[in-house]
Write a structure and sequence with these properties.
Helix content: 40-55%
CATH class: Alpha Beta
Order of helices and strands: EHEHHEHEHEHH
Distance between the termini: 47 Å
Bound molecules: flavin mononucleotide
CATH topology: Rossmann fold
Strand content: 15-25%
Number of domains: 1
Strand order of the largest sheet: 2-1-3-4-5
CATH superfamily: Flavodoxin domain
Amino acid sequence: MKVVLFNGSRKDNGCTFTALDLVAKSLEFEGIETEILNIGRRVFNGEIEAVVKDASEKVKNADGFVFGSPVYWASPSGELVMFMDRLWAAGADFRFKPAASVSTCRRAGNTATLDVINKYFAYSAMPIVTSCYWNEVHGKTPEDVLKDEEGVQTMTMLGKNMAWILKSIEAGKKTVKQPEWVEKVMTSFIR
Ligand SMILES: Cc1cc2nc3c(=O)[nH]c(=O)nc-3n(C[C@H](O)[C@H](O)[C@H](O)COP(=O)(O)O)c2cc1C
């Protein structure tokens, strides 16, 4: 089983990466393969279509996902939002695969950021994975993040919970049928 973790920061090795790396290490400890993709820098550099194409391929072969973002103005980074908008519009098939959001900020805006990211999962019938606190760390530098003992614990627990959900879904496949997908009703209230 494999989890793909998307880093929505422009920094490949900043605080978001550090948080995602903690989740990845915890997943690996539980026997789950991981891959961290630094998408924020590529989106910032104007590679959005190529990033979405690459990610769509990764999504097909992954069983779970983590989307991480730094807080910019109490919201996810514009790079992550653009990436997720395009990825969902491109029809990437996330249905029934578990996902988690992760955010990092110096001081405030983490929960608002997590709320925005979680809305994509809720639209796509994805079980949302949580931890022992909201999935957040604090810091301006990776060193700060590693000093955030509660944040480190939260990321580690998130990895364990994701592994548990993945293993439960896998074990359940023998006896529990996945729901049939519905032909979606699309209404408009503008007449
Ligand atoms: C444009 C911009 C906006 C930011 N807005 C906030 C904010 O609203 N609240 C906050 O606490 N930190 C804010 N920060 C700080 C970052 O969220 C924080 O340092 C984060 O951990 C950086 O993650 P990174 O190293 O992965 O980029 C902002 C940083 C930037 C560059």
